[in-house]
């Protein structure tokens, strides 16, 4: 499947962290993190993630871009709100309840979840449905590893995810425009795909709070809203689960939401995207089918109408 990449040297192979984290970025990023209350120093937050064959070779966005231009409506709707307000979130202790159609249901602490996990760096394209994009050097592990550890029962067809509900710390949850908690879902084969990761960091540091600390989903071939942050529940289920944006405006946001330049959003085209950090006069770049991961994931959707039915 990833044969095309096997022989290619990726950015992760050839560029040590220090080379793409130039001093200005480090300083700016450190400031951004400090502004959001800092990053956790929890014992499970291991660094030194290994490079991965799944990383792309494009230069990542700066830590500053990735930590100051965010969507995390639990902290407000402005792009700068998460960096301003997410410092209030307590991320240690943290646990994830894994339930539904699994052999070993339970409430797992972060320490238990991270036990024996080998973290990898995954440099992925990240494409928001709002037509902006970034390149993010995530750190994480395959969701399939976690699901295999808890044992998926044969009747399970989908995976449902939930973000923390804690309006005392998440000020955006005091307004009821989304039916909190934020929820998302994947079909089981999408969840088990090796590109699908649970990310616990970026730029080889623990996950900044505004990006979904301490642990979030990343599904690089889907629009960014599928990549749910600060996950506290993972449920294996038989029916297609509730997903927040799909439920709120089903005509605009489908359950699948695979990146697709040929299917316009009812209010804007998805054919091109603006790379964040490219400057005011930068040309928009063409959006790629499945966000450039077509070779890896197209087979999951064989025979499905991705424009009218399963968008
Ligand atoms: N997860 C939660 N819980 N709440 C959110 O508002 N926003 C989504 C997604 N996950 C969101 C979320 C959207 S719209 C995008 S584009 C990405 O997170 C943004 O991730 P980033 O801020 O790390 O770039």
TrEMBL record:
Mo-molybdopterin binds at residues 70, 73-74, 128, 163, 211, 216, 227-229. The gene is msrP. Keywords: Metal-binding, Molybdenum, Oxidoreductase, Signal. This is Protein-methionine-sulfoxide reductase catalytic subunit MsrP. Residues 90-245 form the Oxidoreductase molybdopterin-binding domain. Its cofactor is Mo-molybdopterin. Part of the MsrPQ system that repairs oxidized periplasmic proteins containing methionine sulfoxide residues (Met-O), using respiratory chain electrons. Thus protects these proteins from oxidative-stress damage caused by reactive species of oxygen and chlorine generated by the host defense mechanisms. MsrPQ is essential for the maintenance of envelope integrity under bleach stress, rescuing a wide series of structurally unrelated periplasmic proteins from methionine oxidation. It catalyses: L-methionyl-[protein] + a quinone + H2O = L-methionyl-(R)-S-oxide-[protein] + a quinol; L-methionyl-[protein] + a quinone + H2O = L-methionyl-(S)-S-oxide-[protein] + a quinol. Pfam families: Oxidored_molyb. It comes from Candidatus Rhodobacter oscarellae. The keyword Signal applies. Binds 1 Mo-molybdopterin (Mo-MPT) cofactor per subunit. One of its GO terms (molecular function) is metal ion binding. Its EC number is 1.8.5.-.
């Amino acid at each position: 499947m990833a044969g095309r990449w096997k022989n290619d040297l990726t950015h992760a192979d050839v560029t040590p962290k220090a080379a793409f984290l130039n001093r200005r970025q480090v300083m700016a990023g450190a400031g951004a993190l400090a502004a959001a209350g800092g990053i956790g120093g929890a014992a499970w937050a291991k660094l030194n993630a290994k490079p991965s064959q799944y990383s792309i070779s494009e230069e990542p966005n700066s830590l500053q871009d990735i930590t100051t231009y965010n969507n995390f409506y639990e902290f407000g709707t402005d792009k700068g709100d998460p960096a301003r307000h997410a410092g209030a979130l307590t991320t240690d202790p943290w646990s994830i309840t894994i339930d539904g159609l699994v052999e070993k249901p339970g409430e797992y602490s972060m320490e238990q979840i991270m036990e024996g996990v080998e973290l990898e760096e995954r440099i992925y394209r990240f494409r928001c449905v709002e037509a902006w994009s970034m390149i993010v050097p995530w750190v994480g592990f395959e969701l399939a590893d976690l699901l295999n550890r808890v044992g998926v029962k044969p009747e399970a067809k989908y995976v449902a995810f939930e973000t923390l509900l804690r309006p005392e710390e998440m000020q955006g949850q005091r307004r009821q425009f989304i039916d909190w908690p934020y929820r998302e879902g994947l079909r089981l084969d999408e969840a088990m795909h090796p590109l699908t990761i649970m990310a616990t960091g970026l730029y080889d540091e623990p996950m900044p709070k505004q990006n979904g600390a301490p642990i979030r989903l990343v599904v690089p071939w889907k629009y960014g809203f599928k990549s749910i942050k600060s996950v506290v529940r993972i449920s294996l289920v038989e029916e297609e689960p509730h997903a927040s944006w799909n439920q709120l405006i089903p005509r605009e946001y489908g359950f699948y939401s695979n990146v697709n330049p040929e299917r316009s959003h009812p209010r804007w085209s998805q054919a091109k995207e603006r790379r964040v950090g490219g400057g005011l006069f930068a040309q928009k770049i063409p959006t790629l089918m499945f966000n450039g991961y077509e070779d890896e994931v197209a087979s999951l959707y064989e025979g499905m109408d991705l424009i009218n039915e399963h968008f």
